[in-house]
Amino acid sequence: MPPLPFRLALLFCGLMTSLVSAADRPNFIVFIADDVSWNDFGCYGNSGARTPNIDALANDGLKFTNAYLTASSCSPSRCSIITGRYPHNNGAASELHRPLPEHLIKFPSLLKEAGYYTALAGKDHMPQDQANEKAVWDEKRGTGVPGNNGGEGHWVDVVQKRPKDQPFFFWFAATDAHRDWNGDREWKEDLYGPKHDPADMEVSPYLRDTPETRDDLASYHNEVTRFDYFIGQVVDELKKQDALENTLIFVMADNGRPFPRGKTRVHDSGMKTPFVLHWPEGIEQPGSTTKSLVSVIDICPTVLSLAGVKVPEQVQGFSFANVLKDSTAPHRHYAFSEHNWHDYEAHGRAVRNGQGILYVRNARPDKAWLGPADSVSSPSHKDLQTANAEGKLTTAQADVLLEPRPKEELYDTSKDPLQTNNLVGNQEYAKHLAEMRNVMDTWQKETGDSVPENYTVDHYDRETGYIDSKTGKRIRGARPYGDWSGFDHKSSEINASGPH
C-alpha cells in the first residue's frame, strides 16, 4: 500500500478535480409558460406584448424561429420534454392528466445523480409514482403564494437558497397564461406596470375583432407580462450571485395560447413555441436568430450532453448543442407533432420539414378540431359561434368550427403562414405530398404509433365547453379514458426515433 502522505495527496487531487469540473459544468433553468403562443413575446414581433425581460434575453442570446412542440396539450407536452420522448411513446401520458410509466426516466434525475441540485417550482403536471419523483428533485414547490397563483412566486427563493457548491437544474413552470385569468384579480401595478389596453391588442386572423375578444386577449397578455416579470427577478438574482454567465436559460411554452385555433392544434398556431436561449459563456453569436429546425424532445439530450451526462437509450431526441456554437448549423430535417385526447376525442399527427412544408393527418375527420373546454367556453370562441350562424366568418375563422375536416392537409408555410390553403390535390406539390406521407408512415411504424379502437371519447360539451348545454351545469365526473395511441404496439417500450 502506498504511504499515507501519497494517498492523501491523491485524494486531494481527486477532490480538486471534481470541484473544478463541477464549477465548469453549466447550470440550467427551464422557464415554461402555460398556454403561450410563439408570437406572443415582443421579441417575436408582437406589438401588443410587454415582455422586456424575455426580449433582453433574446437580444443577448439566441432566438429560435423553428422550434416545435410534440404536443399542444399541457401534461403530454411537459412529459415529452422531460423524458425526451414522443407523447405516444410515453404510454398513457400521451393523453391529458394521465401518468408516465414507472420505467421511464425524467432526465433531471440523471443530473441529480451526477451532482446537480435539482428543483421544480410552479406547475408540475408530469404525474409519475412518488418513488420516481424523489429520485428526480431535491426540492419541489407548488404554484401558490399569497397574492400570486401564477406559479412564479417561489422562483427567486429557490435560487437564493440553493446550495452554492453544486451546479443546478431548475424547472420553473408558471400557470400563466392559463385561463381563467387570475392575473387580472391579482394584478400589482407597482410590479408589472399598467394592465394591457384592449385597444393595443393584435387580433389573430383566426379570431374576430370584437370588444369581447380584445378584452379576452388583454387579460391573456397580462399573465404573459407577469410571467416575464418573474423571469427578470430570477435573472437579477443570478447576477447578484455572479451565476448568470454560466447558466443556460430556456424560455418556452408548453402549448399554444388558449384561444380558438391555438392550444391543441398541430398547426403552427398551436405547435410552434417561443424558444429563447441565453448563456453568455456558451452561445457563440449572442443576439442572433436561428432558423434551425428543433423539437422540444431535443432539450433533454442537449442538456445532458452539455452537463457531461450519458444520454439514455430511451431518449428519441437529438442534441442541438452545435447550434449554440453556430446559429446557421442545420439540425433536423423533420419535426413531428401529435394531438391525442384533451377534453375531446382526437387523433392528429403532423410533420414539418426544414423547407416549411407541413403535412397533417387526421384520424378523426368527422369532428371539428376544437380547443380545450375552457377555450370553447371563452368569449372569443362564443363570438365565432354566433358569427358562424350568421355566415360572417372568414376562411381562417371558419376553420375553427369546420366539420367534417380533411383527412389530410398540406401547407407551404413559407407562402401560407396562416395555413389556410390546403395543397392536397395541387399537382405542383404532388412530390411534397408523397414525401411527407412516406415520412409520416415511416415514423408511425418505427415508433409504434397507432389509432386506438377503444379511444377516449369527449368529456365536455362541444358547444358550451365546461357547461352542459342540456342542464346548464358544470360537467363533472370521471374522465372517459380508453386506450392510448400505440397501446397495441406497446409503444412505451419502443425507443426508435424514426426519421429526423
From TrEMBL:
UniProt signal peptide: 1-22
Keywords assigned by UniProt, alphabetized: Calcium, Hydrolase, Metal-binding, Signal
Region (Disordered): 478-500
One Pfam family cited in the UniProt record for this chain: Sulfatase
Keyword Transport included in the entry's annotation: no
Domain Sulfatase N-terminal: 26-309
PROSITE patterns the record matches: SULFATASE_1
Key word Hydrolase present: yes
Protein name, as recorded: Heparan N-sulfatase
Family: Belongs to the sulfatase family.
